[in-house]
Amino acid sequence: MNTLGDEEVARLDAWWRANNYLTIGQIYLKDNPLLRRPLTPEDIKPRLLGHWGTSPGLSFIYAHVSRLIGRTGQQAIYLAGPGHGGPALVAAGYLEGTYSEIYPKVSLDEAGMLRLFRQFSSPGGIPSHVSVTTPGSIHEGGELGYVLVHAFGAVMDNPDLLAVAVVGDGEAETGPLEGSWKGISFLNPARDGAVLPILHLNGAKIAGPTVLGRKDPAEVRSLLEGHGYEVLEVSGSDVPGMHHRFAATLEEAHGKIRAIKEAGWTGARPRWPLIVLRTPKGWTGPEQVDGIQVTGTWRSHQVPLAGVKENPEHLALLEQWLRSYRPEELFDDSGTPVELVRSLAPAGELRMSANPHANGGLLTRDLVLPDFRKYAIDVPAPATERAESTRRLGEMLRDVYRDNPDSFRLFCPDETNSNRLGAVFDVSDRAFAERVTDADVSISHDGRVMEVLSEHNCHGWLEGYNLTGRHGMFATYEAFAMVSASQTVQHGKWLQEGDRLPWRAKVPSFNILLTSTAWRNDHNGFSHQGPGLIQVVLTQRGDIARVYLPPDANCLLSVADHCLRSRSYINCIVIDKQPQLQYLDMDAAAEHCARGAGIWSWAGTDDGSTDPDVVLACAGDVVTMETVAAAQILRERLPKFRVRVVNVVDLMTLPRRKDHPHGMSETMFTELFTDTVDVVFAFHGYPGAIHQLVHGRPDADRFRVRGFIEEGTTTTPFDMTVRNRVSRYHLVMDAINNAKRLPPGATELKEWCERKLAEHAEYVVEHLEDMPDVRDWSL
């Protein structure tokens, strides 16, 4: 099908050749960027890094999407699933002029081209993959599997946006990508934008064939049609013919998308188009090297000619390869791309490398947030009333949904009601584009609450939503946040690097709510008991990582309000969904959260006139209850034993201020923990985290931390604390063992605690529940 005129073919092909030339130059050259003289070994980088094999296909697609944008005015962003095709996307931004606008030293001339080449995958330069430094990118290419989830998140509540998502056939083998085809089951064409997946099958990954590349094309088509797509296919390596065929197919796909969008919701999920593009791996590169086939095989994946500095034949082959693109036709005498090349790029912000949706902070609007205080729980006295804390948060999120109909979403793996956030269904159903039955509850085609039984999808959707300027929250069971923990790490890296780039505007924070925690998953058992994500977030750099452990509902509301207002952080909030004791009224909670930590004088026996005998510290809801109960035991049975209770809600206040911006001052640390008194610290997560955080504080060895030590089973809530040695009785014994001054009766109290633990062990086996004095305990 010939839909292109000769002039259009010439423009497309010139741009593509220029992009391929710049891609190869980034991988190989440190000098002689325009080949004004024959190549010498001195022109070659000392280390050859980068990935050629996927790059020509990526730039071929980019060229054609640019042409489509120029013809239609379509707002579009480009997401490169094969992220190690980084040089192709960097080159694309350079040819569009965006790169030089952002990085003026990388100018559109010979000197700028040389800098472009030298910086690639070099010390002090840029990574070899598509990353935060790449204009137009919202997708970190360092880990495969997430291109579609980011694309679908980007277009939610973004009706005019087209996300072109290139899926590599190696990436298509990952679990996250395999689950992400289902994104079309949650898009509403009237309210959301569109995703155009382009499955790029070049047949090979780093050292062998790909599954989909070797499958019969009919099987691949059936697989994708089974997911609900209308599959369009293009294949070949004949350059002029491929330009004609792909242009026609891309226009057909775009026409189908526009028809779907214009029709809006018709009562059935539309069959969105998907393109399968088959091209040789390493297309237009050296066919053979040393008599061995390279193009079309895994050998073209990275650096097809690895010995160019030492092997004159390889060096000559590299020069022949570079000159095959006829650079003298593509760049003028100064090294500037000629008009034929530059004319392909759309104007201004329609350039995919300059589209503001790919720098979402530019589009971010503050949420309209209600006053969190109006959802407060009445607390007549500390530790006397019980409530489901997350249920109050659900009421707050309901009103956030109502007041922000196109800029806030909750993402949850089928657990919104389970996590007590179901109040959001008062104003929005679950989103679903598949068949809805009369038996369904709070499910509709117009819903905006995102539930799918995939942590990867939920996490990635929110990342795409955040990075294009909108706000949200990812709520999941604590243990299964580890399913998507590497996504948390990758997103943290993106935010960290983005913070160093002045042209990257800050985006809404990635807010994680962990419920169904290790300490209360008594019926699910050991598989559901694991606080590991706290440790993951703590490893992120201090200017990004935030971990909050609100002990009750009012603290949770205050923390959530703060997180929803923040920018470019990873906020991890951990609190259980079960009924729990409430400690602070709203005024006290807001003050406590603002400070991050504080002394609960009502819980201890410390009057502040002198140092206490021991400090009982806590961070986390269940361990806070155990700490307050332990303090009560000590207060009643050892009334002359001075106990100070410190609760920590913002975990990042514990490090020194030079180690984290939330770190409390030395004066405040001393006011809370003293400089010499032993601290028994009951922690929600793994004990080592607290030792890590207080490193460098006065006499850090005096901190004795109790926390989750991988002891768990299907058992009672209190038995979980016993198994992990963080029960009230263990804390009392720890206080006695670590205090420098013991009053009369301490030995007898330790023996009493041992008897209570023995009594507990017998009681839970006999009665299948906790002892009444534990189960119903309050102050």
Helix content: 25-40%
The share of residues in extended strands comes to 5-15%
- From the N-terminal CA to the C-terminal CA, the straight-line distance is 80 Å
- Overall geometric form: elongated
CATH class category name of the largest domain: Alpha Beta
Q: What structural category do the secondary elements indicate?
A: alpha/beta
Sheet with most strands: 6 strands, parallel
Mean pLDDT: 96
Low-confidence stretches: none
| Corresponding CATH superfamily of the largest domain | Thiamin diphosphate (ThDP)-binding fold, Pyr/PP domains
Which fold does the CATH topology of the largest domain refer to?
Rossmann fold
Report the strand count: 22
Gyration radius from CA atoms, angstroms: 30 Å
Strand order of the largest sheet: 12-9-13-14-16-15
What is the second-level CATH architecture of the largest domain?
3-Layer(aba) Sandwich
Count of discrete structural domains? 3
InterPro entries: THDP-binding, Transketo_C/PFOR_II, Xul5P/Fru6P_PKetolase, Xul5P/Fru6P_PKetolase_C, Xul5P/Fru6P_PKetolase_CS, Xul5P/Fru6P_PKetolase_N, Xul5P/Fru6P_PKetolase_ThDP_BS
Family: Belongs to the XFP family.
Domain Xylulose 5-phosphate/Fructose 6-phosphate phosphoketolase N-terminal: 5-362
Protein name: Phosphoketolase family protein
